[in-house]
Predict the structure of GNAT family N-acetyltransferase.
Amino acid sequence: MNNIHLRPYHPSDLNNIIHIFTEAVHQLGIKHYSPAQLSAWAPSKPDRQRWHDRLESMVVVVAEQGATIVGFIGYDGAGLVDLLFVHPAFTRRGIATMLIQAVERLAFTNGVSQLQTKASMVARPFFESRGFVVIAEETVTIRGENLRRFAMDKIIKPTQ
């Protein structure tokens, strides 16, 4: 992972972020969600203004390999990990771990002692491997499709 570095999100990253999100949802979610659910979650024509507003409202850390964005995490500053996606071509390389560790350090430094997330069925095992615990199973309706997810949380400590 020596060639992966983390940096803050810039508005010029928007198209790459949307692309990573869409590819990750459609390629990694296929075993857990139907095509209709995947299309509702990550439509082929994303709302760029909604994405811009969402990303501007949180702390976003981008993972790059060279000049290529390979993943990102979004954190609201108060404990909610709202987004964590890695491009499918770069999964299983520790990038998601680097991103969540960066948020854990940032959160702890800012006095936050607990993180929460709403993990998809795809993301649940990763979050569990990082010490998150399922609090509740939920169903969220997106564009008329019901998707299963998990409310999870984790107490963070300075050694993480």
Notes: Helices lie at 14-28, 35-41, 48-56, 95-109, 124-129. The two ends are 18 Å apart (CA to CA). The longest strand covers residues 145-155. The chain has a mean pLDDT of 94.
